[in-house]
Amino acid sequence: MSNTHHTSQAPTSRGPNRRRLVLAACLFAALGASMQGCRDERSDAPPHQFLPDMDDSPKFKNQGRTDFFADGRMMRPRVAGTVPFGENAHADAPTRFMYLKDSPEAFRGIDSSAKPGPNGEVSYVKFIPAAVFEDYARLTGKGPDESITAKIVRGQERFNIFCAACHGYQGEGGDPANFVGGVVGRRWSYPVPSFHQDKYRDRDQPTGSDGYIFHVVLNGVAGATPNDPKKMPGYADKVTEPDAWAIVAYLRSLQGAWRDAPAAQAVATPAPQKSEVKP
C-alpha cells in the first residue's frame, strides 16, 4: 500500500499584486509623458485654481475704504494702551514721553495757560517749548546745545522731504503764474504761501507763532468752509511731533538766513524744462 502525501498550498496574492504594479507603472508612464508634453509650451488659458478662495481672497489696501468697520477705514488706528514691539513705556525709557503725550504745549502746540477765545479758539505757543529740546536730548543722548543743532539738521531733512515740494527749498512758496517754488507748488491751483511773509515771521500774529506752524504741519489748513477740501493736507501720518518741531526750528533758521541776506530774496527762477512746461 503506497502512501500518497498531498501538500496543501496557501492561496497566494501574487497575481493581484502583479496587476497593481503593472497598473501603477502605466500611470507613472502616462504622467511622465504628459509632463514632457507641457515643457516649453505656452497657453492663453488661465491656470487651474485648485484653491480659488486662496487666490481670490479679499484684502485691505492702504488708504482704502470698507463698510466692515464703522469708521469706513481699512487702515486701523493704533490700539489704545499698547506699545510697539521692541519698545517699552517704562519710567526710565527715553521714548516714554512719546506714549504719554501729557504736554499740550509739546504735542499740540497749544498754550494751556491762555484762555480759549469766545468761539473756543485756542492760543498757540509763540516759541518752541523747552521740553521739546529736553526730550530730544534725552532721546538722542546729546547735550543741550548739541541737541538744538541736531534738531535743526533733522528739521532740514524733514522739510526737504515733505515741505519743499510745494513751498520750495528756501520756503519761498509756489506761484503757478510765474512758475516759482517747488515742483508741486508751481502747479498748484492757487499760489502756495511763502514762509517769509510777515504773517509767518511775526510771532505776535496768530499765524506766526511756532505752535501754529507746528499745528499746520501735522493737521494742514482747513478750507474756506467745512465742506471744502483742505487747502493743505496734514502730515501727521508721516511726521511725528518731535519732527514737526524740528521742521519749525529749521524754518526759523531759514527765515533768519533770508532776512540777513537780502540778496537771497531774489529767488532765481529756473528756466522751465521740457517736462515742466505749463499746461
Descriptive terms for the model:
279 residues; Cytochrome Bc1 Complex, Chain D, domain 2; elongated; disordered C terminus
Describe the structure.
The protein is mainly α and 279 residues long. It has a domain at 96-267: Cytochrome c-like domain (Cytochrome Bc1 Complex, Chain D, domain 2, Orthogonal Bundle). The protein contains ten helices and no strands. It has helices at 14-38, 52-55, 96-100, 104-108, 130-140, 144-162, 164-167, 198-201, 210-219, 241-260. The longest helix has 25 residues, at 14-38. The chain is elongated, with a radius of gyration of 35 Å. The model is unreliable at 263-279 (pLDDT under 50).
Summarize the SSE layout with pairings:
Elements lengths: L13 H25 L13 H4 L40 H5 L3 H5 L21 H11 L3 H19 L1 H4 L30 H4 L8 H10 L21 H20 L19
Helix pairs in contact: 5-6, 6-10, 9-10
Concise summary:
This protein is an all-alpha fold and 279 residues long. It has a domain at 96-267: Orthogonal Bundle (Cytochrome Bc1 Complex, Chain D, domain 2), CATH 1.10.760.10. It has ten helices and no strands.
